[in-house]
Design brief:
The structure holds 2 protein chains of 2 kinds.
Chain A (H helix, E strand, L loop, with lengths): L4 H9 L8 H11 L5 E4 L5 E5 L5 E7 L4 E7 L5 E6 L4 H4 L3 E4 L4 E6 L13 E4 L5 H7 L5 E4 L4 E2 L3 E4 L2 H16 L6 E7 L7 H10 L3 E8 L18 E6 L7 H13 L4 E5 L7 H4 L8 E7 L8 E4 H16 L5
Parallel strand pairs in A: 3-12, 3-13, 13-16, 14-15
Antiparallel strand pairs in A: 1-2, 2-12, 4-5, 4-9, 6-7, 6-9, 7-8, 10-11, 11-17, 14-16
Helix pairs in contact in A: 1-5, 5-9
Chain B lengths: L1 H7 L8 H11 L5 E4 L5 E5 L8 E6 L4 E7 L5 E6 L11 E4 L4 E6 L8 H4 L9 E3 L5 H5 L7 E4 L4 E3 L3 E4 L2 H15 L6 E6 L9 H8 L3 E9 L20 E3 L9 H13 L5 E3 L8 H4 L7 E9 L7 E4 H19 L5
Helix pairs in contact in B: 1-5, 5-9, 7-9
Classes of the chains: A alpha+beta, B alpha+beta.
């Protein structure tokens, strides 16, 4: 399977923090429009693409948004104070370069702090090189959000980039769609908004789609780095089939379906239990009267930092697994 | 005055009856339909003269307060909070208990009897009680029973330069602004929803939005204002007198950018002062409204109020007037289209 590095680079290079997903939505829309029958955008901004069929209605969700920092104050000297959009740690933010939608670049730093262990966002600021409030105001406004500013990098089998959470999920959905053969299933690919701030887009889009079965595509943690917290997921061990996380316990029939499809098609997979975090499937599985749902996760190192790391082999396994699931005639 | 009557009425979460009745009496002649839903929300519909998107404007009727949990043999009353209250502010405050408004005062062991360690710590609920002047459990039970609601007892007072102090400005101020709008002439049709139990987890707003199915939601609030001494400027959530506070984001919602922009533009065009709510702490009914069913675009406009969730909060009358004016103009802007 060829790896479409250009597409993944384009997806991760695109600015789209939670609530500001317009840019990534336009790119994805252009990318998929030749492969689906209907496209709509709902009130919160979810991109809902349908490939019509008359069997099971399957919703596949990957989130378009990424974490960021929102400006809440600009001081007289032009320094910006900020708060978090999504789950971030002050220590990870420190000394990172950030970029705003209009291309303004800044550096995150902090006031002198006695105990760095107690560093809080309140004590931190962003320097965009402005020398006064007026000058800063020409570049940014209160409410503007910036994201990490790091370059995409790939080698033979690794990809390193910001916001692979969850552009890699979007990438897998797009590539699976392109390679999809005939299927009877009624497929809704939903590129969701605002996952990082509470699975919000998945909730309203699931209500609208009203699926029989749900799948989310997202990243998951790993336990394969030096002295890592115990977790039986590693890079290069294949697509991770979720068993449980904080947002859900995967329906046993879905777990069985997913592992069987992986085995039937010789797709490398590993089982995943994540003890922190959740995914859009957490919102989908309790939609309306309940939706049996599962998750294909991409094992990812350094999630929510400026350089997340994934394996191309795992990505390709995930694409294949999603494709085979969508092609399958499913009886639960 | 309406805001005086609204703030002096008691409506601790789950016990909004008095406030609800006052609101219904106030608006019933100005709306085309009004009903109280199963959970207690007031859902009123005002029909306009033009095709309108489904607009829901919401303010919550409830306020934070306390509830009776136990009556001691001494006749003193133990209690628990309803909604988020800083327990350090409670001692020595006067309260009003139950539907007969039995007066009481929150007391604690006198300072000379407290151990040195106790003196340096804030009093907790366990150390506080309410004294209603009863000498025994039996005597207290003639007036008060377990489960009775306890409201703060304070009067609406105007003071200083254009300021108001009153309890429950969060969110009677929102209710009052919404009532102003209902009484004005609008071409746009809209649902005016007065919700219950916001302070105990945005309880009423979900069912209300499920019923109304709004495309656009505007939430009116009395919000935190921390422009006080010892707070660094970048931590001032809002400033008194700087105009209506427009929300960017809070724990429950990332507010729709386009709707926010429409509100900002409206303020600018009409020379109405405005500010952004510069914190993401807290949440409001929008958290339920914007994710109900297929979702809605929402915004929040608030009157800044110092000392909210206490027996006495403070607002600026100009902020109130400007919020009311801004809301009216925003509705007119939505009338001319282009939001959805």
């Amino acid at each position: 399977m060829d790896f479409n590095g250009n597409l993944l680079k384009k997806l991760t290079d695109t600015y789209s923090p939670s609530g500001n997903e317009e840019r990534i939505r336009n790119i994805i829309k252009e990318e998929i429009k030749g492969y689906v029958d209907e496209i709509k955008i709902d009130a919160l901004g979810n991109l809902i693409a349908r490939k019509k069929g008359n069997d099971k209605k399957i919703m596949v969700a990957g989130h378009m948004d990424q974490i960021g920092y929102m400006i809440i104050d600009i001081d007289d000297k032009g320094f910006l104070r900020f708060t978090n959009v999504g789950g971030v740690s002050p220590h990870i933010a420190l000394n990172q370069r950030v970029i705003f939608e209009n291309g303004t670049v800044g550096i995150v730093h902090c006031e002198p702090v006695d105990d760095m262990g107690k560093l809080k966002l309140d004590k931190m600021f962003i320097d965009i090189g402005a020398t006064s409030k007026e000058e800063a105001n020409k570049k940014v406004s209160i409410g503007d959000i910036c994201v990490y500013h790091t370059e995409y990098y790939e080698d033979e089998n690794r990809v390193m980039s910001k916001c692979l959470d969850d552009r890699v999920g979007c990438y897998i959905m797009i590539e699976a769609l392109k390679q999809l053969k005939e299927t009877k299933n009624d497929i809704y690919l939903v590129f969701t908004v605002q996952e990082e701030i509470g699975l919000r887009g998945a909730r309203t889009s699931a209500y609208g789609v009203n699926p029989d079965i749900g799948f989310a595509l997202d990243v998951t943690g790993v336990g394969d780095t030096p002295k890592a917290k115990r977790m039986a997921v590693s890079l290069d061990n294949g697509a991770a089939i979720k068993v449980k996380d904080v947002s859900m316990i995967v329906h046993p029939k879905i777990k069985k379906l997913m592992t069987e499809v992986a085995k039937e098609n010789n797709i490398k997979y590993q089982l995943e239990i994540l003890e922190y975090g959740g995914t859009d499937a957490g919102a989908i599985h309790i939609n309306r009267e309940g939706v049996p749902s599962g998750v294909i996760s991409v094992p990812t190192r350094y999630i929510h930092t400026s350089s997340e790391v994934v394996s191309k082999n795992d990505i390709n396994d995930s694409i294949k697994l999603l494709m085979k699931l969508l092609e399958k005639e499913i009886t639960l | 005055m309406l805001l005086k009557r609204l703030t002096e009425a008691n409506g601790v979460s789950g016990n909004e009856k008095e406030v609800r009745q006052l609101i219904i009496d106030e608006i019933k002649d100005y709306v085309d339909d009004i009903k109280v839903d199963k959970i207690g929300n007031v859902i009123a519909f005002k029909k306009g003269s033009i095709d309108s998107p489904r607009v829901m404007i919401a303010a919550h009727m409830d306020e934070v307060g306390l509830m009776v949990t136990k009556i001691e043999s001494s006749g003193l009353i133990r209690f628990t909070p309803v909604g988020g209250i800083d327990q350090r502010i409670l001692v020595s405050k006067t309260v009003s208990i139950g539907k007969d408004n039995i007066p009481g005062v929150i007391g604690a062991k006198p300072i000379h009897l407290q151990e040195p360690g106790e003196r340096s710590k804030a009093l907790t609920y366990k150390q506080l009680y309410i004294d209603i002047g009863a000498k025994s459990k039996e005597q207290a039970e003639e007036f008060v029973k377990i489960g009775d609601y306890i409201a703060f007892d304070s009067k609406y007072t105007e003071f200083g330069h254009n300021l108001v102090k009153a309890k429950a400005l969060d969110d009677r101020v929102g209710c009052s602004v919404l009532i102003d709008l209902i009484k004005s002439d609008t071409k746009l049709s809209f649902y005016a929803v007065f919700t219950v139990m916001e302070e105990v987890g945005l309880v009423g707003a979900g069912p209300a939005a499920y019923h109304v199915e709004p495309e656009i939601g505007i939430i009116l609030e009395g919000t935190t204002c921390s422009d006080v001494t010892d707070v660094e400027p970048h931590l001032h959530s809002t400033k008194l007198g700087n105009g209506p506070a427009i929300s960017l984001m809070d724990r429950t919602t990332y507010f729709d950018k386009n709707l926010r922009e429409l509100i900002v533009e409206t303020a600018k065009e009409n020379d109405i002062p405005y500010q952004f709510r510069k914190t993401i702490f807290g949440g409001n009914d929008s958290g339920r409204i914007h994710i109900a069913k297929e979702g809605a675009k929402t915004a929040t406009i608030s009157v800044p109020c110092r000392y909210i969730h206490s027996p006495i909060s403070v607002m600026n009358k100009d902020d109130y007037t400007n919020t009311s004016k801004l809301l009216k103009l925003v509705i007119e802007k939505i009338e001319t289209g282009g939001v959805l």
